[in-house]
Amino acid sequence: MPGVYRFLNRVYSLFDPQDYAEHILGDDRAQEDVERALHKLIKKVGEDIEAMKFNTAIAAMMEFINLVYKCTYGVRDESDGPAKHFVNAFMSRSQAERFVVVLSPFAPHLAEELWQRLGHDGSIACAPWPAYDEAMLAEDTIEMAVQVNGKNRARITVPADADNDAVLAAALAEPRIIELAAGRKIIKKIVVPGRLVNLVVK
After folding, report:
1. CB atoms within 10 A of CB 39
2. Residue 56 carries which DSSP code?
3. pTM of the predicted model, to two decimals?
4. Which of 159, 19, 153, 32 is nearest to 77 (CA)?
5. pLDDT tens digits for 37-79?
6. End-to-end CA separation in angstroms for the chain
7. Which residues sit opposite 75 in a β-bridge?
8. Torsion angle in degrees (nearest 10) through CA of 37, 38, 43, 46
9. Contact 35, 95 (CB under 8 A)
10. Given 1.10.730.10, 1.10.287.70, 3.40.50.2300, 3.10.450.50, which CATH number is that of 2-131?
11. Spatial CA neighbour of 119 closest among 97, 101, 104, 102
12. What residue spans define the domains of the chain?
């Protein structure tokens, strides 16, 4: 319960003009990372509702809001009393509207209020479920673990279509791996595509 309460408070804060000067409602700039994550969220929550996997749908929404907060920049305003931290979030009006519709089956009263704050007169219950674009679901990059003798030692980000040689090159260029392999011989290099690299050293 405390986790869900904090999540809903974070959602509300994004739309609260008293705390966060106009950042969502007047900004139509689409941020690519948020847009891609939103298409994945729409697909997952829709499928999870059909399968009655409500916990994983909620977890996906929490992850999405975490991403939105990461895609922010802050401005401190000390002109009038104690400093206040305003956040300008990279979420456009369209993105905000689609997210609120996805949220509405789980938090209908909150979603209804946010829908009105977005300027809609009718009920969010009448809004259609947002569509997602399959092309937006493809990953440009993936994150992979790098192990040394079976223990996780680092993580690398590589293009999703990188071949094994490119993945190995990225792993061997990672500073932490260079440090661990210094003065030792790499006797085996194992790449599990899309998941991990394991270097066996002695």
Report:
1. 19
2. H
3. 0.64
4. 19
5. 999 999 999 999 999 999 999 999 999 998 888 766 443 444 4
6. 49
7. 86
8. 130
9. yes
10. 1.10.730.10
11. 97
12. 2-131, 141-201
